[in-house]
């Protein structure tokens, strides 16, 4: 399994160059997890244009042995964290 963490406090995130606020970080994680699921499961390349990520012909020939993909774990207790976890983890 893979455990995803959207980040710590705003000040900790800024030390790493991440200036998104709490809710924006969770929105970015939600978009990322949606893309990752597609990369793991799609049989053909696909384009993506979102709020945080954009690419053309995203694809990986390497797929998880566990189907449809490895388990996704997610931390957080805020309302937005629970919403993202409920959708993706």
Quick summary:
The protein is an alpha+beta fold and 89 residues long. 40% of the residues lie in helices and 17% in strands. The chain has a two-stranded parallel ribbon with strand order 1-4. Strands 2-3 form a two-stranded antiparallel sheet.
Can you walk through the features of this model?
The chain is α+β, with helices and mostly antiparallel strands and 89 residues long. It has three helices and four strands. The protein has helices at residues 10-15, 22-41, 79-88; strands at 2-4, 46-49, 54-58, 72-74. The strands form two sheets. The chain has a two-stranded parallel sheet with strand order 1-4. It has a two-stranded antiparallel ribbon with strand order 2-3. The longest helix has 20 residues, at 22-41. The N and C termini lie close together (10 Å). The mean pLDDT is 95.
What pattern of helices and strands is seen along the backbone? Answer: EHHEEEH
- Helical residues, percent: 40-55%
Give the count of helical stretches: 3
Averaging pLDDT over every residue, what do you get? 95
Name the features:
single chain; 89 residues; alpha+beta; two-stranded antiparallel ribbon
Write the layout of secondary structure elements.
Blueprint: E1 2-4, H1 10-15, H2 22-41, E2 46-49, E3 54-58, E4 72-74, H3 79-88
Parallel strand pairs: 1-4
Antiparallel strand pairs: 2-3
